[in-house]
Structure to design on (317 residues):
């Protein structure tokens, strides 16, 4: 006998979302399209993402990869490459190097990952001689629109830094704060997550959280309010924070969640995406140009939102 639906089984309706991505796209449509280097778009999904962004007048794409393969895939998918520039390369490593060179030389204002591995692209980006390094550590931020949360929620770092050090986390936090400013959050509230709310020498993330908060007090991190360690519940729930006796300007109202490591962040983002019906857009920060990391599993809506973040970040603050 088939299981009967239970109360609460249905996902929240689309109308429950806050429209944040629509507002982001609307803002970006008032800007001129950005020349974006698309690195090794050697899958139908990667090419479709390019055409979606182009049709929404977000980008002028420059495709970097094996030309014959790209043209064959476009023909297979019924996509017309007329008028689109292609920079021919032999393989994915060469595609990453060529795309980074385009960004270094100012021929593109942003990069978008195609079908190569993220590590391949970042290896070229982080090359000390020919890459796109700055004084900041490169990090990734997910910007989520969660139907059950009343504001945009940023999570970092869930895609680039595996086990970040305290120094790494300082840059990860600052990158996220700077992004918050660019998307209209003037005074972002930053929750440094751990499993508990108190400092415990046996849990490194609580020590890092306390140190990051002190760094913010001393001006080593600027532009946001930090608190931590905070567990996830009292970072996002005012009631949970009240029950734990936590009184701060961040607890219960976080705009940015800083996770202890990539594993925790990756699981948190996927839980919110698949169990809470959240939309997620992702961007890599800290390089000379913004880098869009789109996934094959992303919806059209999410891919466009990621590209829109990249477009917005090419504009002067």
């Amino acid at each position: 006998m088939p299981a009967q639906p239970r109360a609460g089984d249905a996902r929240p309706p689309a109308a429950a979302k806050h429209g944040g991505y629509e507002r982001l796209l609307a803002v970006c449509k008032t800007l001129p399209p950005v020349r974006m280097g698309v690195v090794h778009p050697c899958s139908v999904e990667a090419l479709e993402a390019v055409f979606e962004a182009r049709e929404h007048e977000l980008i002028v794409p420059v495709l970097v990869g094996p030309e014959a393969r790209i043209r064959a895939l476009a023909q297979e998918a019924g996509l017309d490459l007329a008028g689109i520039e292609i920079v021919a390369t032999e393989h994915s490593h060469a595609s990453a190097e060529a795309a980074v060179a385009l960004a270094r030389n100012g021929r593109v204002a942003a990069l978008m990952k195609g079908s190569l591995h993220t590590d391949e692209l970042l290896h070229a980006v982080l090359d000390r001689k020919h890459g796109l390094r700055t004084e900041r550590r490169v990090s990734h931020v997910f910007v989520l629109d969660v139907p059950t949360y009343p504001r945009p929620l940023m999570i970092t770092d869930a895609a680039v830094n595996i086990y970040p050090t305290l120094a790494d986390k300082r840059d990860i936090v600052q990158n996220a704060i700077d992004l918050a400013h660019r998307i209209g959050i003037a005074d972002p509230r930053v929750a440094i997550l751990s499993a508990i709310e108190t400092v415990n020498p046996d849990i490194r993330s609580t020590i890092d959280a306390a140190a990051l908060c002190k760094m913010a007090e001393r001006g080593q991190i600027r532009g946001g309010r930090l608190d931590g360690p905070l567990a996830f519940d009292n970072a996002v729930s005012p009631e949970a924070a009240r029950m734990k006796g936590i009184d701060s300007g961040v607890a219960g109202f976080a705009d940015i969640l800083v996770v202890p490591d990539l594993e925790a962040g990756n699981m948190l983002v996927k839980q919110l995406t698949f169990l809470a019906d959240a939309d997620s857009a992702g961007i890599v920060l800290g390089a000379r140009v913004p880098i869009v990391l789109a996934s094959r599993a992303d919806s059209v809506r999410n891919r466009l939102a990621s590209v829109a973040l990249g477009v917005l970040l090419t504009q002067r603050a």
Q: What stands out?
A: The chain has two domains: 17-133+298-317, 136-286. The longest strand covers residues 59-65. Residues 1-16 have pLDDT under 50 and may be disordered. DSSP finds eleven helices and eleven strands in the chain.
